[in-house]
Amino acid sequence: MAKTPQGTSVGVDDPYAHVERCDHLTDDGRCRYAFHYAGNDPEFAAARKADDFQCPVVDPESNWEWRDCPHFRSTEHNRECARCGLEERLNKHSTAARPLLEEHHLSYADRAAGTHEITVFLCRWCHAKIHNSFARIDDDASPDPEAIAEGETRRGQELDELGFQTASERRKNE
Quick check: pTM over 0.85? Predict the structure, then answer.
């Protein structure tokens, strides 16, 4: 299983197996990186420009994989735990409340060597289990009871915010 520089588990054997698409990929299959950041890698940008900025990974005539692209990056945007499915519920009225979900990096290799950033979201409870044990991201897991309780507390607070009270009702409650 892949490890962090500190030797703790990241919960996967192959980080690329948890990638849906590159952050630089447009809906029509073009490479946004080559277009917007051409000065960072002129050779790469020129090759992509010659091919109308087509991403070689999604090009059916190419045999590229995500790991072959020097500028690949994947950040999960789905706001639920990749392991247990717990949905994020932000407490927007408290700056002290921790989020339920945390970013979890699957790729920790040396950035100077041009390595890839692959990030998913995990709830705090699954995040701790992965780093502190042999738990894996693709385990068939249910949310921790404490995580469910915290999510339901936040859900109740959200519903309270949506509630409507007339001015007379508020005065009675004061």
Answer: no
